[in-house]
Amino acid sequence: MDMVNTSEEHVNELLQAHLVAALPTLNPTKACNIYRLIRILVRSGFFARQKLGDDVQEDGYVLTNASRLLLNDNPLCVTPHLKLALDPIMTVPWHFLGAWFSNNDHNSFETAHGKILWDYCRHDPQLNNLFNEGMSSDSRFANSVLIDKCKGVFEGLNSLVDVGGGTGTLGKAIADEFPRLNCTVFDLPHVVAGRQGSGNLRYVGGDMFEQVPAADAILWKNNGEVNDEAWNLTETQVLFDMLMMALSTGKERQEEEWTKLFVAAGLSDYKFIPILGIRSSIELYP
């Protein structure tokens, strides 16, 4: 990630030397291996090779659309989300997947750490902050698209509760866009602790499985896309389904499965709206 941000500084003259300089803790004896790392980053689409000029003998490297999402000054920067995904606490559970299939734990995260993710975050401020920052960066990435495509859903409402709203990234965006809408960010007490609302935005701590604050509408986020066939899932969806199996208790669902849930809950109607990538908006009507 340091290499990517240094790339932006030298975007017109990016050579391997600039990338090496971006790693201040690099052991000088390992610098000769940096080209191997660059090579796979080019193959993966994070850098692109480019001729920088007739007077420059070696090719340079420029950022791609994928690597620009890692720039610190990019409003849509997903680096916090990536750091969360790569943190050892989040990767170790994959090594316990086999053991999880043989026990009664909720998921392999519990098998690896002795407690579920939410309880771990409650007792580990460092992971809690990492998780909240990661979720905030993910929300920023989809906020503008969600509000634009679903503007009609929010118009006419007097109150809204963002269930599992985290630090309020999406809630703030909605409150700013609709100043007459009273927006409540609702999440576990340790997530919203110390958060101060203002104007038409407030924070409430609690457990959604026990009680949710009353409002005209409830907003609940889940990164998933609806498909009508079990084997019609994209590669991204299949991988995300595995992620939820290992770290939480959720899963990717077909439209038929969603429909059964909605009918069992006594809802009168629903509507699916594709938002961005694997994200969809599901409107539910009581």
From TrEMBL:
PROSITE patterns: SAM_OMT_II (PS51683). Residues 94-221 form the O-methyltransferase C-terminal domain. One of its GO terms (molecular function) is O-methyltransferase activity. InterPro entries: COMT-like (IPR016461), COMT_C (IPR001077), SAM-dependent_MTases_sf (IPR029063), WH-like_DNA-bd_sf (IPR036388), WH_DNA-bd_sf (IPR036390). The keyword Transmembrane does not apply. It holds the Pfam family Methyltransf_2. Keywords: Methyltransferase, S-adenosyl-L-methionine, Transferase. One of its GO terms (biological process) is methylation. SUPFAM superfamilies: S-adenosyl-L-methionine-dependent methyltransferases (SSF53335), Winged helix' DNA-binding domain (SSF46785). This is Trans-resveratrol di-O-methyltransferase. It comes from Hibiscus syriacus (Rose of Sharon).
